[in-house]
Amino acid sequence: MGCDFRLKIYSSDPSQAQKASQKAFERIDQLEKICSDYLSDSELNRLSQTHMQWTPVSSDLWKILAYSQKISQQTHGAFDVTC
Q1: CB 48 within 8 A of CB 81
Q2: Which of 13, 50, 52, 79 has the highest CB neighbour count under 10 A?
Q3: How many whole angstroms separate alpha carbon 81 and alpha carbon 83?
Q4: How many other CB atoms are there within 10 angstroms of residue 12's CB atom?
Q5: d(Cα 68, Cα 82) in Å, to the nearest integer?
Q6: What's the rounded Cα separation, in Å, for the pair 33 and 40?
């Protein structure tokens, strides 16, 4: 989604750490397919192309958009999810 990140996992069990890392990257891939504005077929980009039509969205996208709206209200518009 256009930003670098680092994942650090602390565990005394290397196998458990590997499984946790794999699960985390799987979830990141899921969220990228939903929220990325870099992927033309992401759910977010498909939603953006509906032009004011009622469109069902996934639970993940709904939660992200609802939370974004809450943060926008709390910051009096300083945070703008549309940017």
Answers
A1: no
A2: 79
A3: 5
A4: 6
A5: 9
A6: 10
pLDDT in tens, 26-81: 999 999 999 998 999 999 999 999 988 899 999 999 999 999 999 999 999 999 98
**Rounded-to-integer distance, Cα 36 and Cα 31, Å:** 8
Closest of 76, 46, 68, 70 to residue 58, by C-alpha? 46
Output the DSSP codes for 8-66: ----S-HHHHHHHHHHHHHHHHHHHHHH-SSSTTSHHHHHHTT-S------HHHHHHHH
At position 71, the amino acid (one-letter code) is I
79 secondary structure, DSSP code:
S
Q: Could you tell me the pLDDT band of residue 1, with boundaries at 50, 70 and 90?
A: low
C-alpha span between 83 and 69 (Å, rounded): 12
